[in-house]
Known about the structure:
2 domains
Amino acid sequence: MQEYKSFSDNELVQLLKQSDHSAYNELYHRYFYLTYTHTYKKLRDEEQAKDIVQEVFVALWFNREYKLPDTNLAGYLFTAVRNKIFDLFAHEQVKTKHLDSLKDYERTHQSVPTDYLIREKDMNAYIEKSIQALPLKMKQIFEMSRKEHLTYKEIAEQLDVTENNVSKQVNNALRILRTRLGLLIWVAILLKL
């Protein structure tokens, strides 16, 4: 092993191409700290820097037979590290975009439990059925008041009746609906309509 320390990078690469483990170990010890320091300066994260350098040296071993340069191994290793850093940055940007997109979706599409939606739909249908069961004139006045949001005066003018009559019809409709639907649904009517 001592003799490998005296070999040049080019000699070690040639031995590495022949699957010489000792040549690989010498290259690893020769360049690990340098590439790690360079990577750490770019990332400021020890674990990520170690991971990237380890990936580069693993690739060095697996690509030993066909992708290694005959000269300038240091340039090859630093380029490989730089490319891994760029890949990491690109991956982080994509991940950030996906997370931001997910947060935007959650913020704009608040999910409502399905059973709540079904109960609300059923309750609205029951309320509407009860309104439709009111006497015709009372139903018309009630809908104009609660659905069309017309004032008693506007309703009275359109139907050619007195405001007092409109007020009585709306109050009678609310009393009938309160009796039919119960207190909770009556409150819902007042809030929804």
